[in-house]
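Pinned message: reference record for Sulfurtransferase
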Amino acid sequence: MDKFLKNALLFSALALPVWQVQADTVGISAQDTYALLQQSDDVLFIDVRDPVEIMFIGFTDAVDINIPYLIVDRNDWDEEKQRFRLHRNPNFVEEVKAALAQKGLSEDATIITMCRSGSERGLPSAEFLQNNGFENARYVIHGFQGSSVKEGEQRGLRVKNGWQNEGLSWGSKPNTDKIYRTDK
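Predicted structure (tokens):
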């Protein structure tokens, strides 16, 4: 009986799309995000990078909107990290609510966030949203650009996993209707 039950559970799990099997986790792969977007309009897909970063790295039009979770403060240099400091967007929750409303979605809709690599803004933004009442917030595990290679000729380059490296659609220029702007 135990062997039968295990096999039945395994078969059931394999029959479901991967994003459903992983529904109890915060992370979702780029491929599974893309598949989910093809299957459902009830998802809000947010690029949470600073728009300046998008200008230099690229953008996918698959996202609904760019709402930065952390914004680069060009007046505050971090000597230790040798970069400008990042501060949480004080309007992040309100801007996500507005994007949901614009798309006709409720706060219990699936929200997927994506940053460059998934770690510094992707996971924290999804957790922040969950802590603020958006229980179905997720993030793209390896983000837009993916992980850097640790060894070999391409050492240090982000050529492994992530949206760009998995062959999903992207371009070098942002969509001006979706990019975060303070001049509108």
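Pinned by admin. Summary line: The helical segments are 2-15, 18-21, 30-39, 51-57, 92-103, 122-131, 162-165.
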